[in-house]
Amino acid sequence: EFEGGFAAAHAEASSACDGLAALAAADPAQLDACTGLIDALHAAIAKVATALPTAILESSTRKTEDLQARLRAERERLAPKKKFAFRNRTKVGGAPGA
Fold it and tell me: Is-contact 69 45, C-beta < 8 A?
């Protein structure tokens, strides 16, 4: 029962995370939707964790953590890059000869 529901929810979350790979810029709505699906997976696992066999619990947890890692990687990829700028030496370290 849990395995079937988890598989369906995992497939939905996985396809949502796969959709992020096609984005060229961050879409907060899509990122939040993927985060919500992953959080729902974590909640479903936590809800029945005491009743699940260890192998199923570990497998489900590992799959969910893999999705979480993919989402984290996509967030980093889509985050705006910091721009480099030279700083005035007198402001940063005092006088150049000091």
Answer: no
Q: What is the DSSP letter of 49?
A: T
Residue 87: CA count within 13 A, CB half-sphere: 8
pTM (two decimals)? 0.72
Please name the residue ranges forming H helices in the chain: 2-20, 28-48, 54-78, 89-93
Q: Characterize 20-50 residue by residue with b for buried, 16 or more Cβ atoms within 10 angstroms of its Cβ, and e for exposed.
A: beeeeeeeeebbebbbebbeebeebbeeeee
- Region 1-11 average pLDDT: 89
pLDDT of residue 37: 92
The residue length of the chain stands at 98
